[in-house]
Design brief:
Blueprint: H1 3-34, H2 52-68, H3 74-97, H4 103-131, H5 138-160, H6 162-195
Helix pairs in contact: 1-2, 1-3, 1-4, 1-5, 1-6, 3-4, 4-6, 5-6
Length: about 200
Amino acid sequence: MGASEILGVAASVSLLSGWRLYLCIFATGLAMRGGWIAMPEHLHQLDILANPWVIGVAGVAAVAEFLADKVMWVDTLWDTVHTLIRPVGGALLALAIVDPHDQAWQVVALILGGGASLLTHSAKAGTRAVVNTSPEPVSNLLVSTGEDVATSGLLFLALAHPVAAIGVAGVLAAGAVAVLLLLRKLLGKLMGRAAKPS
């Protein structure tokens, strides 16, 4: 696997961990342990994720996140708590994927992995806060389920096809930036309305 594929996988996993960190750890570990995904030779550094204890703890955390994410305002509280956790997790996952013998790439992966995870986490948390203002609970459930499905599918695609991981990373990063720009514009409009005298 070439450097671009390795960076694509690292970026994809980091970006996806900003949405669902525990699902990324659980799914990657389970796929490795079960042999469902033929991991490229280089990614065997992630073998620790196949440890039954790691899979078990990540699985419990993924279920907790799945449930918390379906309840209006509980999801925002969960996201707030994970503002520090997801970027660190994304950085460590990226760090585990790149070549351990190349310290420069390790530092780059650590910095970019944390930043990528924070980017998608910020877009997710902002979107969910806006969705929570809707009086009906269905939109919250739909958005959360969409995140579950997208994370699972894109994670599988990135791990099973490292070349596709480059595209996955690009789409995720562009999507997160677009969402943040829309949220900023929406916030500006709301602040403008609040500033106008009645």
